[in-house]
Structure formats: structure tokens, C-alpha cells
Amino acid sequence: MLYFILLFIIVISILNLKLKIIFRENYTNFDRVNPLKYFKYELPIINKLKLGTANKNTTCYQLGRILSKYFPLQVIETSGTLENIDKLSSGEIDLAIGQEEIFSDAYFGKNDYLNTPKKNFSFVGGLFFEYFTIILNNLIPVRTFTDLGRGFEKIDRNYIIGIPEKTSGTYYIIKKIFEIYGIDAIELNTRVDNSLNKIYYVTADINSIISLFIRGDIDGLCMITGPKNPYIINLCKFKAVKFLGIEYDETKSNIMKSFLSPIYYKDFDPRVFFTTNYMGNKIITIGSRSILVSRKEVNNQYINTLLTILYNNIDSIRDELDNYLFTKYRNNKLVDSLIPENIPFVSKDLAIHPGALEIFRKNGYITNDTNNCYNNECHIDYKKLYWKYPIDQVTLK
Questions:
Q1: Mean pLDDT to the nearest integer, 204-208
Q2: Helix count and strand count (H, E) for the chain
Q3: Buried-most residue among 95, 231, 336, 347 (CB within 10 A)?
Q4: Which tens digits make up the pLDDT trace of 264-282?
């Protein structure tokens, strides 16, 4: 009898040792990382991945914070897409949320990345839209985007606008848009030379820009924003403003395709900021799509699991994101956010992470069947793969 007891103890000890080795070297259960009820998958990586986002008040950061409840992520506050690209390249972060058009420029070495392409990341999923807008003093005689270059003609001096820091995606893109529209955007200094087709700008953090605007030191500010921006919500309480979009122009749109790929023209209703100071209507402007990317070295199973959890909990995640800064009288929910069929869509330039591609194909969002897709254009890296669905509710130019 004693012999069997000793044998049983030895067998149990050996099995326990083997299980410890298995968990230590290969897999860890989510419950061992964090006891949240959503973590029900096993991962080949024990440590949390680092996710670069943006300022804590942005939708990017808030989405990262929400995702970290479902998935082991360390959410990193950054200044935006440009810093995220640098941190991905240096290995400081593993994932990043940012603007699709800038990631595309960086990947293919276009525009500001002409001599320094960044090939170390790949596409994981599309997330939500924000909008290019110029917020102006309501008394400024400007009706269209091109009017911004006519300040000397209208008020005997050039207009002055504020733009977020030079490390921001807004600065990167708006400078190029001014150039395409024939407006010479010059950083304001002590010497001012007023003339036609010119606009002056200052760069600073968003709080400083808004302070300058409220005091009347500048005529407006440029933002890529959505209905969740607390800075704009508060601004509209103190200042009579109007919102200016970037109207569609076929010729200029064709030129913009060189750095905005793809280009989305969307309706944006500034009344979501709810202010009696704003009495305008919807505007048409360029939409900027935020996407999730990953370093190519991140394990396929990790990305696969991240997307599986996102799809399985997408309604809950979207609801929590909508509830951020939500008020009924503004009805300021996000538009076109986390639509399952739209998550796989990306401009044909960016490489898709293999872990993400597996999920997209498994769910039928990317197909080999040309008779069951919305166009006959395939991804340039995957010659026989087609998107089954187009981007909903957007005009893709």
C-alpha cells in the first residue's frame, strides 16, 4: 500500500513540474496576466504589448484604454501618429493607432518619408473616422477653404491660424493641403509680409492654441477632430465660431492622392459640439481614418487573438467608446466606428499582418472570389485577395 502511495506522489510531482515548464516557456493563460473575465485565450507572449495612441483626451487613447480591459495592453500616451511611427521603428512600442494616410506615406517612403521609409509595421484593422476642419471666428469673412488665402484682400492682412505641434498628424497633412490649394502657409515670426494667397500659422499644444484663439490673437485653428473632442466642446462655450471643411475639387483631389491614400470625403455635423454660438449646418470635408498597426515581429497568434476578442466584443467596446463624453443633447456618438465589415479594409499600399489576414479570410471579409467582391481591384501584396465589402457610408475618391 505504501508503495502505491509513493508512486502516486512521484507521478503527481512529475506532472506538476511538466505543467510549470509548459506554462513558463510556451504559453500563459490570460487569467494569469490579469483576472478580468474577458481574458479566455492563451497567448505565446507573457508580457503586455505596448500600444502607442495619442493625447489622453483623444479618441485614440480612450479606445486603447477600453481595449486594455479586454486584452493585455500597456497604453502609452504619445503626441500622435508621427511619434508612434518613430517608436514602432525603435521597438519602443508594439502596436499603434494613427492616421492611415501617414502610415501609408511612411511605409512607402513618400513625401516627408521620401528618403527614410518605415517598413517595419503592418496593418491590423481600421477603427474610426475623424475630420479635417478649420474652426474660425464667426465674424471672419471666409466661406470656403480657398478663402483662407484671401485675408489680405478681405481684411487688409493675412489670416493667422493655429496648428498643433509639428510632431502631430494634423501639422503633417494640413501643410500639404494648403500647398495643393495654392496657399503659401508661413510660420509666423516677428516679420510679417502681407500679400495674396498667403496664410500665417503658429504651432503649439492644443491648450495654448485655444487660449490664443479665445483672446483673439489668431483667427482660427486647424484640427483633425471628431465629436468627442473635449477641447472643442469647451471652446464652443466661450467663442462664437464657424466650422470650415475642405470641399471636394476633382483636380485637387487627384493631386492629393499622392499623399492621401485613400481619400474619403464625408459629411460632418459640427452641431455635435452643441453650442448656441454655432448656427451652421453640416459641412463636407476630408475624413481621416484611424487604423491599428503592429510591428511585423509581433507574433501572429497574438494579433489573431486580439482581433478575435475585438470582433467577439465589438458591440460592448463600441458602446463604451460612444459613452465617452456622450450627452443626449449633443448626440455626439462616433460615426462609422468599429464596423465589422470595414475593419479589414485598407488602402492597397499597406501590408496586412498575417495574423490579421487569417481572421479576415476566416470571417469572409477578404475573399479569392472575384464574383463575390465589391470591385475587381486586389491588394498589391496579395494578388488574388479581394475585399468583399466596401467602406460603408463614405465616398471613396
A1: 89
A2: 13, 16
A3: 95
A4: 777 777 766 654 444 456 7
